[in-house]
Design brief:
By secondary structure, the chain is of the alpha+beta class. Helices cover about 35% and strands about 20% of the residues. The protein contains 13 helices and 17 strands. Helix 6 packs across helix 9. It binds zinc ion. Zinc ion (ZN) binds next to loops.
C-alpha cells in the first residue's frame, strides 16, 4: 500500500558494476552536469524547458542533437547511441534497440517505458519522433538514463556503511490485508531478514520500527534524518489493487517538474523537495534493488519469474520527499492478487526478496564508489 495519508497502497548488474562509458571530452560531461544543476535551482521556466542551456555553437561542439517538442527539450536517440558507446541501433516499426556488449536498451516511440537489460523503467515523458528520428526527453536522459548507465559519475553519492530500513505501516495501520496476513507484518519480516544479513556484512542498520507499532510518515522521516552519516533509505511495502494487478515496482522521488505516478503535473510539482538533492542516487539505488530482486525471484527449474516487473516509477510519497539520504520505496507484490497473496506469505519468497535487497546494497555501493576513488 502506498504510504500516503490516504490508505490504499499502493539492473542491472553489469552496467552498475562496470561503468562502461569512458568520456574524455569534458564538454560532453558538462552537458549533463549543467542540466542537473539547473534543475536543482529549480525555476518553473527551467522545468518547462524554456531556457536554452547551451548556445547553438556549444550544441554543435557537443554532438548532442537537441530539439524542442511542445516547449520541452529532447535529445535524439542517435546522439545517445554515440555518447554511451552503443555499437548498434536497430529499429523495427516503433521499437528501437540500442546495444553494446554490456547493455541492451529498448525504447518505443510513443511509449513511456524503457528497458535496460530487461529491467523496466517508466519515463517521465514519451519517446517522440521527428521525421525518421527518435527523441528522448532531456529530463529522462539526465535524471534516468545517465545515472543508471554512469553511476560512478553521481556527484553526491559515495561511501556509506549505514542502511535505514523502513518497514511500512504497523500498529493501528496494518496496510494492505488479506486472509493470510497483514502488509505491516510482511514488511517487518522482510526488513528483519535484510537487517540480519546486512549486519553480518558489517553494515550499520537503523530500523524505523522493530515491532508492530504505529509510526506516522513524518516520524519515519525523522528517524532517517537523525542519521548524520552517509546512509541509504529503503522503505519496504507490499501492494494492493484490483484483482488482476500483479508484480513488483520501485518508486523514487519525482524530479522537479515530473508528476506523481498516475497523476498529471500540478503546479507544486515544479518545487524541489529535500529528496531531490539525490535524484541521481535515488534512481541508481532503485535500479540496483529492483533489478536484484527480479533476478532473485526466478524459478530455477523453469527459469520463469514468480512475479512480474511493473517497473521503476516516480512518485511524491512523503517518505521520499522528506528523507535527506538517497531513498526508494519498494513494493514486493500484490496482496490483493490470489496467487501473489500466497507468494508473499511464502517464507522462501520473503527470503528471496530480502536477499535481493541485500545484494543490491553491495551492488549500489560498488557502483557509486569508483567516482571517489577517481577523484
Ligand atoms: Zn504499503
Amino acid at each position: 500500500m502506498e504510504p500516503v495519508g490516504k490508505t490504499g497502497c499502493h539492473f542491472f548488474q553489469e552496467a552498475l558494476n562496470t561503468p562502461f562509458v569512458s568520456v574524455k571530452n569534458p564538454f560532453l560531461m558538462a552537458f549533463l552536469d549543467r542540466f542537473a544543476s539547473a534543475i536543482r535551482n529549480v525555476a518553473p521556466a527551467l522545468v518547462a524547458g524554456c531556457v536554452v542551456l547551451m548556445s547553438p555553437e556549444a550544441r554543435a561542439q557537443s554532438g548532442w542533437d537537441i530539439s524542442k517538442i511542445e516547449g520541452r527539450e529532447y535529445v535524439s536517440v542517435d546522439s545517445i547511441k554515440k555518447f554511451y558507446n552503443f555499437n548498434t541501433m536497430t529499429r523495427s516499426g516503433n521499437q528501437i534497440t540500442l546495444e553494446n556488449s554490456k547493455v541492451e536498451m529498448n525504447l518505443e516511440i510513443g511509449g513511456m517505458e524503457c528497458l535496460m537489460n530487461r529491467v523496466k523503467f517508466v519515463f517521465s515523458n514519451k519517446v517522440e519522433a521527428i521525421g525518421s528520428k527518435a527523441y528522448v526527453s532531456r529530463m529522462d536522459l539526465a535524471k534516468l538514463i545517465d545515472p543508471v548507465l554512469r553511476p560512478n559519475f553521481i556527484k553526491n553519492a559515495g561511501e556509506f556503511r549505514t542502511v535505514i530500513l523502513d518497514p511500512g505501516h504497523g500498529g493501528k495501520d496494518p496496510g494492505a490485508t488479506n486472509p493470510l496476513g497483514t502488509e505491516a507484518g510482511y514488511n517487518l519480516k522482510v526488513a528483519e531478514l535484510v537487517r540480519s544479513q546486512l549486519l553480518l556484512k558489517g553494515f550499520k542498520v537503523v530500523m524505523t520500527r522493530n515491532t508492530d507499532h504505529y509510526l506516522s510518515l513524518q516520524e519515519r522521516v525523522s528517524v532517517a534524518n537523525k542519521v548524520m552519516e552517509n546512509a541509504i533509505y529503503i522503505s519496504i511495502h507490499f501492494n494492493s489493487g484490483g484483482n488482476a494487478a500483479r508484480g513488483i515496482e520501485t518508486f523514487t522521488l519525482s524530479p522537479p517538474g515530473v508528476a506523481h505516478y498516475g497523476r498529471d503535473v500540478v503546479a507544486g510539482d515544479a518545487q524541489a523537495r529535500a529528496g531531490n538533492e539525490h535524484d541521481s542516487a535515488n534512481i541508481a539505488l532503485a535500479t540496483a534493488v529492483h533489478g536484484s530482486v527480479l533476478r532473485n525471484v526466478i524459478d530455477t527449474k523453469t527459469k520463469k519469474s514468480y512475479t512480474l516487473d511493473r517497473g521503476i516509477k516516480r512518485a511524491r510519497y512523503s517518505v521520499l520527499t522528506g528523507v535527506k539520504h538517497p531513498a526508494i520505496l519498494f513494493e514486493g507484490g500484490f496482496m490483493s492478487h490470489p496467487y501473489e497473496a500466497k507468494l508473499i506469505n511464502n517464507a522462501a519468497y520473503q527470503k528471496a526478496i530480502a536477499n535481493g535487497i541485500v545484494s543490491a546494497v553491495g551492488t549500489y555501493l560498488n557502483a557509486v564508489r569508483p567516482k571517489l576513488a577517481a577523484q
